[in-house]
Amino acid sequence: MSVQKDLIQILIDHGFIKKEEADLFHRYVNNSKEETYHSDDLFPTSDEENRLEKIIVNRQDNLRVFSDIIREVDLLLKKILTPDEYDQVIEECIKTVGYVPQELSTSHDRKVEAMKKLVEKLPDDVACRIIFDYEDINTNKKYVCIPGDAFLAIPTRSEDRFSKDISLYGTPIEVHRRKYGKLKGKISIPEYRDTILKIKMFRIAPAMDLSLSLGKLTRGECDYIKKFVYKISGLMHNYLGVKKGCIDINNKEFLKPSITNIVSNNVIDNSIKLSIEAGMDPVTANKLRDDAYNHKKVKCINTQCENTFFPINNKNKRCRNCSKPSVYLKEWRARHADQIFPPSEKDREKVIYIMWLDPKQH
């Protein structure tokens, strides 16, 4: 079988698509470009493909199927290469998911001092992968590029490039804690994203490059694998960012993921909670939580409270303290104490019926 047919068969075996959808999904991949899943080039090119995309996203039950498919792509490349070739290319991989640039001082002495502190601060396996004096041709500024996995990834809705890069390329706190046996149970969303990203960068990408150089894959087959992987990543992005109950299969509009759904309150709160348990200063952690929500400070709606806070969404009008049931209910009862709620006719009938049923109690 060809590589294209093998990849489509992987999807059928995992229940991702049905057999009758195979040809359409093949065209769906072929018509896209080899870009990241953030690009508009990954939008469907026809109403038929748009409908298929919505059906696929609506069909999935959890994130595991996306990671399983990416793993299967890795296993397919492992079969194309010999075991020795595959082990060699994985061993020689640079072992970094991405670099996060930080601007350097224009002063030579300050720059050297900053570099020295940076190397001392980071572990040896990270420090040896730092790129110094990287010059941006667009801004003519020099940067030091630090491997993304050196940072702790805090999920964020911020549009700041630095925060987004750390969120994408950094290592989730869940990964650290699970590695040392401090975390058990279900795999979290950040862990799934981190796993898929690392399989793509550490295993699939170098294996594809070697397969192409050895003539075991053609340029067309490599391009198809890239498109396939990015399409699966794009569908996972849609799955995370769209409410399943709101998907209209027959609507011609594209799926539009919401960053609020992708980076939910629970995802942010869980990462901050685990960071504090791992030793992060609570003040710093709560500052990161507020920045991650990416909202402006507002005043608590409770007239008796003077606190300002970062709301977690547009409906969040009370600070954390005033949102507690004991505080909120006390305030609600005080506000409605003078109001009279006459019973409806239905309620009055019910009361009369109960009284009549057991008159001895009255």
What is this structure, in a nutshell?
With 362 residues, the chain is mainly alpha-helical.
Could you outline the blueprint of secondary structure elements for this entry?
Blueprint: H1 3-13, H2 22-30, H3 47-59, H4 64-80, H5 83-91, E1 99-103, H6 108-121, H7 124-127, E2 131-136, E3 141-147, E4 152-153, H8 161-169, E5 171-172, H9 173-179, H10 189-213, H11 219-241, H12 259-262, H13 265-277, H14 282-293, E6 298-299, E7 308-309, H15 325-335, H16 345-357
Parallel strand pairs: 4-5
Antiparallel strand pairs: 1-3, 2-3, 6-7
Helix pairs in contact: 1-4, 3-11, 4-10, 4-11, 5-10, 10-11, 13-14
Protein architecture, described:
With 362 residues, the protein is mainly alpha-helical. It has helices at 3-13, 22-30, 47-59, 64-80, 83-91, 108-121, 124-127, 161-169, 173-179, 189-213, 219-241, 259-262, 265-277, 282-293, 325-335, 345-357, and strands at residues 99-103, 131-136, 141-147, 152-153, 171-172, 298-299, 308-309. The N and C termini lie far apart (84 Å). The model is unreliable at 345-362 (pLDDT under 50).
Helix percentage: 40-55%
What is the radius of gyration? 27 Å
Distance between the termini: 84 Å
Low-confidence stretches: 345-362
Task: Compute the number of helices.
Answer: 16
Proportion of residues in extended strands: 5-15%
Shape: globular
Largest sheet: 3 strands, antiparallel
